[in-house]
């Protein structure tokens, strides 16, 4: 830089003339510092010359210096009296010298003069107010040169060159112009930093260079069109997978940006072309490719365009460019993408593509709400098929749990734990699971029973706890929780009474989950069942002591469970013919119990009784764990060899359907302790049975009483009917409660109030029937003038 070489000596005439601005400068300094030994000799001589002669306008102060060390001397510096004059023709000669230097720079030839000398020449001219003329002359020289450059783009040989050659020529011209402007500015830096800086309306030498290049080269319609067309062609080639010179594109687009024509000349056309390209590509690829492949293509395209911005496009283009790609490849095809591929992605659990789908849709306006709606619809449809297909009832609950797990994983891992998607999933589950009333609740209760029953070796305690937690999530979606309660209570009763519960801890854990979910009222009867079992154990300890004191102890060991009728499911009483020894033992217990609890009534329930029989086969002694009905049948074979179905029914008094199931379990199951003649799976009226003396089994104690745990069709129907009966009572109670409080109420308000109070789904028609029933029973009456109005009857 010429400035670095500037000599600022005081005896320079131009330099001296610059001190005209100061009026008076007073300098104080320590005498001992002024006389310091490290000052150069020539500078001291210079200083003394200045203080002794007045020609340079420096006068000695009249103050007398103190002879003491540390006293200060006062110097006063004044303006020059006479302004030094420039030599004749100095301005013209200097300009010619400067013009030659500029010409040499523009023609890339060597400069005859020293750069420092040229810089000094500019400084001298500026000091003598030649700046305006110098600025105009410099601008004219630069303009003439730039105007001459346009011809290389218009003449014959260059019009026929390839696009790439033209772009390289354009870039070379621009680079040369920038380099020349920088060198010219370094010579005229003093002009740039004084005159131009003080005149805000004048562009700097660099800005002048840009303005001239823009006006005479880039704004030429032919040159600009060829340049922009060429850049767009190169970008299109790159988008089609070809390699292009990115540094060339970066330089040319930088040129357009520096010349402030980037937006108008290039960006608008670039975005139009991009829009056209991706609109066509989106339409074509949506037909040709499947959704996962298309999504990866879109992600790749977005990555490419971002890289293009980083490499050579202006940063301001990024937002409109990416918006354009997202709109044409995603925004225009959102519904088509989801209709074509969302179900497949979810069915096949394509988590990578689902995460990509969410990520891409989150960038497009309206993308996530659209995805949310399709996600909700998919869950309703898929879940509806699980719940609404009776043939799949056996696997319904397991399928629901698996489906919920799968959807949870998608929401957590692919949809970024978005609350809207999680809530939509819950809403969808609640909708489809209640489309088929009562059945899901019943099957969930049976599923829990299968997991809590002894013999379930699938899960450890921790796994069982996890399964129960998942079950509770599905349970929350169910509206008819009373159906679940009825079936759960029936199954729990069997597990407790037949001794088939896998773990008391697991049972109580499930109970606490239900209590937490539905409140204490929901589980009060279930808790009562556990209390009865605990009390029964205490009673049996006392009964054992009581029987030991009897004069005639029995060979049979009796265990009785005393059940409070309100807590347990209601069982149909069944009279069977028990052996005399059993009847005698029952009477002993009855005497013992009523002696302790007078006023209570005992009713025996043989359906849930079970026994252990000691049996002798050819192979040896075995113990059979059987139901009470199986016991009665097997004991008959102590009295005879062979019996018909009718003979067994008469002897035992067991109801026909129950007897057939019992005989089937003994003669047609895995452990066949009876032989059936003729053989077959079903028990017919003419069949005869005899004891299988050749029975073999690897175990000593053999369980044959699983039949008790199996639910019969009659049991299932009666449980469902009991739920409906209980619901009617609840509706009646709610209507009376509301009417008693409100006294008078319209039909619509009463129905609305009932929906708020009832915890199970109910149809308006059913409510109307219950209201009519209560009117018939005089709990309420219609208004005589307004039939839609009801009055409470006290």
Structure characteristics:
single chain; 794 residues; mainly alpha; 5 helical Cullin repeat like; 6 domains; three-stranded mixed beta sheet; 33 helices; 12 strands; elongated; disordered N terminus
Quick overview:
This is Cullin-4A. The protein has 33 helices and 12 strands.
Explain the overall architecture:
The chain is built from 33 helices and 12 strands. By secondary structure, it is mainly α. It folds into 6 domains: 89-220, 5 helical Cullin repeat like (Up-down Bundle); 223-302, 5 helical Cullin repeat like; 342-531, 5 helical Cullin repeat like, CATH 1.20.1310; 532-596, no CATH class; 609-711, Ribosomal Protein S5, domain 2; 714-792, Orthogonal Bundle (Arc Repressor Mutant, subunit A). The strands form 4 sheets. The chain has a 3-stranded antiparallel β-sheet. Strands 4-5-9 form a 3-stranded mixed β-sheet. Strand 11 and strand 12 form a beta hairpin. One of its GO terms (biological process) is regulation of protein metabolic process. This is Cullin-4A. Belongs to the cullin family.
């Amino acid at each position: 830089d010429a400035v670095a070489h500037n000599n600022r000596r005081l005896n320079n005439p131009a330099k001296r003339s610059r001190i005209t601005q100061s009026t008076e400068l007073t300098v104080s300094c320590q005498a001992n510092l002024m006389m310091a030994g490290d000052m150069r000799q020539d500078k001291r001589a210079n200083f003394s010359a200045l203080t002794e002669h007045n020609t340079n306008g420096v006068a000695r102060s009249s103050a007398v210096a103190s002879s003491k060390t540390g006293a200060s001397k006062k110097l006063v510096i004044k303006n020059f009296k006479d302004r030094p004059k420039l030599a004749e023709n100095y301005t013209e000669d200097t300009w010619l010298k400067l013009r030659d230097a500029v010409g040499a720079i523009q023609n890339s030839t060597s400069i005859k003069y020293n750069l420092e000398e040229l810089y000094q020449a500019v400084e001298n001219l500026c000091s003598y107010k030649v700046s305006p003329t110098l600025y105009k002359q410099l601008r004219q020289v630069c303009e003439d040169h730039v105007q001459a450059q346009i011809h290389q783009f218009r003449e014959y040989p260059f019009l026929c060159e390839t696009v790439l050659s033209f772009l390289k020529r354009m870039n070379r011209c621009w680079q040369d112009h920038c380099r020349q402007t920088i060198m010219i500015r370094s010579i005229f830096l003093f002009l740039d930093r004084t005159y131009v800086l003080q005149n805000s309306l004048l562009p700097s030498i660099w800005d002048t260079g840009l303005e001239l290049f823009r006006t005479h080269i880039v704004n030429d319609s032919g040159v600009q069109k060829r340049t922009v067309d060429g850049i767009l062609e190169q970008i299109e080639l790159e988008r089609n997978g070809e390699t292009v010179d990115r540094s060339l594109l970066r330089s040319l687009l930088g040129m357009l940006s520096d010349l402030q024509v980037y937006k108008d000349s290039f960006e608008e056309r670039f975005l139009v072309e991009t829009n056209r390209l991706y609109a066509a590509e989106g339409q074509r690829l949506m037909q040709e490719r499947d959704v996962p492949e298309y999504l990866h293509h879109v992600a790749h395209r977005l990555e490419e365009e971002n890289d293009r911005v980083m490499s050579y496009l202006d940063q301001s283009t990024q937002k409109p460019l990416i918006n354009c790609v997202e709109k044409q490849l995603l925004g225009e095809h959102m519904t088509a993408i989801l209709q074509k591929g969302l179900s497949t992605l979810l069915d096949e659990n394509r988590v990578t593509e689902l995460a990509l789908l969410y990520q891409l849709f989150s960038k497009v306006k309206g993308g996530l709400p659209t995805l949310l709606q399709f996600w909700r619809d998919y869950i309703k449809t898929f879940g509806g098929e699980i719940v609404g297909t009776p043939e799949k009832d056996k696997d319904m609950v397991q399928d629901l749990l698996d489906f919920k797990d799968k959807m949870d994983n998608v929401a957590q891992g692919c949809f970024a734990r978005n609350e809207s998607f999680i809530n939509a999933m819950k809403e969808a589950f609640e909708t489809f699971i209640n489309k088929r009333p009562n059945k899901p609740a019943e099957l969930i209760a049976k599923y829990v029973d299968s997991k809590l029953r002894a013999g379930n070796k699938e899960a450890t305690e921790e796994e069982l706890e996890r399964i129960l937690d998942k079950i509770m999530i599905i349970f929350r979606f169910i509206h008819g929780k009373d159906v679940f309660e009825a079936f759960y209570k029936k199954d729990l009763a069997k597990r407790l009474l037949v001794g088939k519960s896998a773990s008391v801890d697991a049972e109580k854990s499930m109970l606490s989950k239900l209590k937490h979910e539905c409140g204490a009222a929901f589980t009060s009867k279930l808790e009562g069942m556990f209390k009865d079992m605990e009390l029964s154990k205490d009673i049996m300890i006392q009964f054992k002591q009581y029987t030991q004191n009897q004069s005639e102890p029995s060979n049979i060991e009796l265990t009785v469970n005393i059940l409070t009728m309100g807590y347990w499911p209601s069982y149909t009483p069944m009279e069977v013919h028990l052996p005399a020894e059993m009847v005698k033992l029952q009477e002993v217990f009855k005497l013992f119990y009523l002696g302790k609890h007078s006023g209570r009534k005992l009713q025996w329930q043989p359906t849930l009784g079970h026994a252990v029989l000691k049996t002798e086969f050819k192979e040896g002694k075995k113990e059979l764990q059987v139901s009470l009905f199986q016991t009665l049948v097997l004991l008959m074979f102590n009295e005879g060899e062979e019996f018909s179905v009718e003979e067994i029914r008469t002897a035992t008094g067991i109801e026909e359907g129950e007897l057939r199931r019992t005989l089937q379990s003994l003669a047609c199951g895995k452990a066949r302790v009876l032989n059936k003649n003729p053989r077959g799976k079903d028990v017919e009226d003419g069949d005869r049975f005899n004891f299988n003396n050749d029975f073999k089994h690897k175990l000593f104690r053999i369980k044959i009483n699983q039949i008790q745990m199996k639910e019969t069709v009659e049991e299932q129907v009666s449980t469902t009917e009991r739920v409906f009966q209980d619901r009617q009572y609840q509706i009646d109670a709610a209507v009376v409660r509301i009417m008693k409080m409100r006294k008078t109420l319209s039909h619509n308000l009463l129905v609305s109030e009932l929906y708020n109070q009832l915890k199970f789904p109910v149809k308006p028609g059913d409510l109307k029937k219950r209201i009519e029933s209560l009117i018939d029973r005089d709990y309420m009456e219609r208004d005589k003038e307004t039939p839609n109005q009801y009055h409470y009857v006290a």
